[in-house]
């Protein structure tokens, strides 16, 4: 399987037609069609459902598309890193993270490095722990920032000097907003909006199984969850400091009591061969917090 075949395949998947992809690639339509047939023959699967007007990916085609995007991205990134001049530190550092105020610490490191090395670039990806871990394993990011009880034994990791506090976002005019803290009894019968990765720590705090709660919605990232809270759909159990709670937002945050806090750690693959840019970032965080 050649890299160009994967690039051609991705163009066909994007354009939805052989003719559109051939035009974008400056190839003849018969040539591109033949190369896609060769790719299917080589892999032993059908990648496309060919309609009269539009091409759809099969299940195998969708799997290949995901891997092909990763492969093409990694090849391009590697070429960029190899071309970096020894005299000037440049390149891109990729960081994945869950939503956490501790990203302010990481942002401070980024700002300091960019002042020293103006050609450095940073790509941030937001996602839950599973998403960040998958990207870290596949080499799509250099570092992952994880919140709470996440098994990082497979990685090198560093605990950041920050702890996130759990609590509830709700409408400012809700009767519970008059409380300074919320207890397990306060939440027991409420319609809750939980993280899709709500863990056993929360269940232990509530003294009940999460399946026994009135969970009306789950969320991956908090922006949309905050919209549900404003609409009165339910109460969002989340970390403090991520959603704005000014008067204009109509929301308030109330911490849990007894308090639950979560540690924040940054991790990277063991024996990782870093690019010069990623190595500079690693050295800086080890200098600050190692």
Structure notes:
The protein has 290 residues and is of the alpha/beta class. The protein has 3 domains: 3-82, Arc Repressor Mutant, subunit A, CATH 1.10.10.10; 91-162 and 263-289, D-Maltodextrin-Binding Protein, domain 2; 164-260, Periplasmic binding protein-like II (D-Maltodextrin-Binding Protein, domain 2, 3-Layer(aba) Sandwich). Helix content is 40%, strand content 24%. It contains 10 helices and 11 strands. It has helices at 3-15, 18-25, 29-43, 59-82, 103-116, 129-137, 184-187, 200-206, 222-230, 276-289; strands spanning 48-50, 55-57, 91-97, 120-126, 143-147, 155-171, 192-195, 215-219, 235-239, 251-255, 261-269. Strands 3, 4, 5, 6, 7, 8, 9, 10 and 11 form a 9-stranded mixed sheet that branches. α1 packs across α4 (59-82) and α5 packs across α10. The radius of gyration is 24 Å and the shape is globular. The mean pLDDT is 89.
Compact overview of the structure:
This protein has 3 domains: 3-82, Winged helix-like DNA-binding domain superfamily/Winged helix DNA-binding domain (Arc Repressor Mutant, subunit A, Orthogonal Bundle), CATH 1.10.10; 91-162 and 263-289, Periplasmic binding protein-like II (D-Maltodextrin-Binding Protein, domain 2), CATH 3.40.190.10; 164-260, 3-Layer(aba) Sandwich (D-Maltodextrin-Binding Protein, domain 2), CATH 3.40.190. The protein contains 10 helices and 11 strands.
